[in-house]
Specification:
Elements lengths: L1 E4 L8 E7 L4 E9 L5 E8 L4 H21 L5 E8 L2 H4 L2 H13 L4 E5 L5 H7 L20 H20 L8 E5 L3 H12 L3 E5 L3 H10 L4 E2 L3 H6 L4 E4 L8 H6 L4 E2 L11 H8 L3 E2 L2 H4 L2 H10 L4 H25 L3 H26 L8
Parallel strand pairs: 4-5, 4-6, 7-8, 7-10, 8-9, 10-11, 11-12
Antiparallel strand pairs: 1-2, 2-3, 3-5
Amino acid sequence: MRTVMFDSDSEHEQVVFCQDGRSGLKAIIAVYSTALGPALGGTRFYPYESEEAALADVLALSRGMAYKSALAGLDLGGGKAVIIGDPAQDKSEALLRAYGAFVASLGGRYITACDVGTFPADMDLVARECAHVTGRSVEFGGAGDSSILTAFGVLQGLFAAAEHRWGGPALYGRRVGVEGVGKVGSRLVDLLAENGAAIVVSDVDTEALARVQAKHPDVEVAASRAELIAADLDVYAPCGLGGVLTPEIVDSLSAAVVCGAANNQLADDGVAKQLHDRGILYVPDYSVNSGGLVQVADEIGGFSFARAEARVRGVRDTARRIFELADERAVPPVTAADLLAEQRMREVGAVRSLRARLATPVGGVR
């Protein structure tokens, strides 16, 4: 294990490179911030083309988790982990348990959960070596599938965006393009259908598309991502991997609102301003896709679906606050969301520091 600790001028507090030759494990754990509490974030199992690509992803994802936790009102920091490999071929009990041993070595600074390529059953194996695990199977006291509340949170963000853009929260008749119909995207399609939206979907996984069509025959399937982007849409909902909002894509979008579940949707820092300049209302991904985080965080103290769902309903109010601040300061919503998250990390983090100082004996007397 190779650990890199960062000074106070750096963004990340700690990055851990994990390797175990016997199990084949190659992983990176990134702790962005523990200002609000232990860093909670999922484990992504993905066949990165290089360690550099994996590092770039985990650094961006862990930062996003810190801001996501802050906006969700959780007393948790931000972290993330990536396992380099093909989960269909490389995942094994030994590898997952070896990964659990590395998580345990951090002593609770990082709490792991599910992400792309990992599932509650995987977390059950990780938990056999480590106590700092959430997102576990129901039979082991966990909350189960976190995609349920992730999709529900995106729906709350869509309600707020519709209200801000069109004067009311109704999605009935609005044409929504959902890119990526995996665990979260397919559940979002369910919710959109319940609310009367006209839905267009795309995915590279033809089996995922077939499942959606079998359940919702009225859903239109775009032949490609390019066709979906070019379609006449009211809302574009990216629900796959990140980096999809490139300058070229934004130039060609017809949608008035962008709101989806994918992490790190903006390909570069200039895209937020480009969306703003084009009059497209972008709902920052980390402000609306926090439902899964809320669900697994609630599991830590003994899971209650009703309690977690009630907190996720707050995504709608958070989005409203973001839009109000963005309008007040004439800045893109992502800038406003950053300001709100950083304010909470700064102010509540200071209280946590005060508590730590008060708990420390001074001169042997408390």
